[in-house]
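dude i think i finally got it to work??
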Amino acid sequence: MKNLFSVAGKTALVTGGSRGIGLMIARGYVENGAKVYISLRKADVCDAVAAELSEHGECISLPADISNMAGVEKLAAELSERENSLDILVNNAGAAWGAPLSEFPEEGWDKVMDLNVKSIFFMTQQLLPLLKAAGDADDPARVINTGSIDGLSIPRLETYSYPASKAAVHHLTRVLANKLASDDITVNAIAPGPFESNMMGHTLKTVGDQIVAENPRKRIGTPEDMAGVAIYLASRAGAYVTGVVIPVDGGILISSNR
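look at this
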């Protein structure tokens, strides 16, 4: 049990790995010895973040717009040219949209659903050969999807497509876990609460003090909090865990203040 929580020597792909939750996970893997590919739509940002993370380990930029099938296929093909197997796939790329119910646009529905749900399914589908090549009974390949506590409860903000998409991510996680268990691939989801990110930036600026006050842990999440859960799920310690959604929220979901 000496290396129970080690990800050293593993290869990972983190979509949306340049900021927020994705960057926290990518950095955690890099600093603990994994070879990490990060991907996002903006090539210059992706390259810059990969260069910064490479100061702490091995990180490679693979820019792609995975909100559409062409981008998904491009990213899967480029990774397949570089690697014969993939130990960890973190489906983290995501978007949100806020508008009053009477004004919520179709664009805000489709953009969020395409990136938050459709891309997870097809990214996993396209990378199945690499994932199957990596896993075995004792140390399966891992798919880790980013959900949200907004997919487990009713959010305060009018972001209708976002909580619906995250609830879909959680159930898709269970469906894929059931299908892929016999292929030595586990599929789990992390459901973050409040963390520092671009997506949460406005909310934390306007009601951050209230969020902290109502959180049983009396703070928002840190990069270490997120990296710790992602490392657990990707390490030997998490090899027998599949089909679960893990809230990482400081206790917000179980709080009477929710």
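The first helix runs from residue 20 to 31.
im so relieved honestly
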